[in-house]
Structures are given as structure tokens and as C-alpha cells.
Write a structure and sequence with these properties.
12 strands; Beta-lactamase; about 15% strand; single chain; globular; alpha+beta; disordered C terminus
Length: about 300
Amino acid sequence: MNSAQLIRDRIVQQVDTSGFRAHGLHVRIGDDVAEHRWAADVREEIHSVAKGLCVLAAGIAADDGAVSIDAPIAASLPGTELGHGVEEVTLRHLLTMTSGIDLPWSESMMTDWPDLAIEFLRRPSRGRVFQYSNASTYTAMRVLAAQVGDAAEYVRSRLLDPLGIDDIAWKRCPNGWILAGEGVELRTEELARIGQLIRDRGQWNGRQLVSATWVDAMHSDWVIAGANPGYDRYAFAGWGGPGSAWRLHGAYGQMLIFSGEAVVTITADDHFGADAMAGFVADALDDHPVPPPVQRRSTARSEGY
């Protein structure tokens, strides 16, 4: 039995014992892979894990020189009324949730105002402090679209197509822009391909889709996000923890959990059980010797992220 199968079996046992409402599980450790399903193998909403797709898309555009991560975003949205301090906000700030602009999530946030990005940017900034908001990622993708065209098409052609993931329809707001921080449905194994790309520092089948330095920033450019373990550090869509792991984490238990050469992909429908499950996975990977991450060499140009 290989390492991935051992970890899979431990997680399956924990799911069955705890009652966590998991749908699918994919474990990759090195080149070993193991899977398990509790529900039909269908595409499901990945919620905030979609922020990781947006971060990867921005990294690809930065590699191309199409966007500058540290340039004020106001130039990409000319004529937009800016709140106090927002003239200094950059794409980096939007993607790391450090714009300091407060606009809480609600089920109707995409329709509460004529244009969510305009409403977001007209509010004042409190400076470079963490303020988690789906509106931040949504606005970041509006900035990206101003430079590369339709963001969903850009993600499809530059990221999903090379990964062999097709027929993805990203949900859109009434104005036709992608929701960005949500609105994408993937199968567990398709989400695991995103995880493998991230684990391998932007490489897929020998091709560098996004620069390694950009992917590294997803779990190294930490900002202080709070005091609760697992939610106290945030980078480019990545949460620090639990333990020595880090993760992309969407509502209801959609998770990519990284530790060394391991990436564990979980899809589920259990919002309040997800943190405990992430903690169990991280402990299981710590208990079982996992090879350290391979320092795969990047061939893509870097902007010094």
C-alpha cells in the first residue's frame, strides 16, 4: 500500500466516524494517488477556492507583462469614483485582502448596487489592513479584464485548457462580469489538478503555466488576518494552517490542503465540520512521513513577487 492510499484510508475512516459530510477525496503524495467517493461524481461549486483560480490568472497575466501587481488599480478603471485612500490600492492589495475597504459578503451583494466594483472602490480604505471580502477578488478580476479581455476566457485558455478541464461556465453578475470569488463548479479530481499545479510550483507536464515565485507567494507572502488558528495568516488566496500545512478553503468544506509533497483535495457539504477535518488531515500528514516539496525549477519570467 503506497503513501497516498494510507492517508486516504485514515481520512475515510475519520469521515465515516465523525459524520463529516464529505463527497469526494483525492490524495496525491509525490506520484502516488488515491481516491474515494461518498457521493456521485459530479461537478460542484468550489466557492472561495475559486479565488485561487483568480490568483493564478493574475500571476499568468503578470508573467506576460499584461498587468503590474503593484501599480495602482485606478488607471485600469478610469473615471471610477475612489474613496479616501483607495487611489493607493493595487492588485496585490485586492488579491491579499489588504485593501482596507469594508464591504461584507451577503447573498445579494452582486445585485445590491448597480455595479459592485464601483461601490467597493467608492468606499474609504483603512490602509493596509486585512479585510476579507468577495468584492475584493471581484474587483481584481475587473482590473484583469480591463487588460486581457474576458477573465473567464483568459482562465480557460491559459489555465484550464492546459489542465484538460473543459466546459466550465463561470457564473456572472447582472453586468456580465464573473463572480470571481465563487461561481465555479469542478469535480473532485479536476480540483485536484489545480492542487497538483500549485504543489508543483506552476508546472504541468513539464510546462510552466505560471511562474514558481508567484505560486510560492500563495503560501509565503503572509499578512495578519486575525487571531483564530487556521485563520490568522492569509496570502494570495491561501490560509496558513492548520499546523504546518496551508490550504485553499471554500465554504461547505471545499479544500486543497498542502504539506510538503502532499496535496489532499476534499469536496463536501459540511461548512461547520470543515475546520476539524482540515486539522485531522494536517495531523495525519505530519504523522506519516511526507517527502519535502521538490524545488522544481521555473522557466517563466518573474516580476519579483
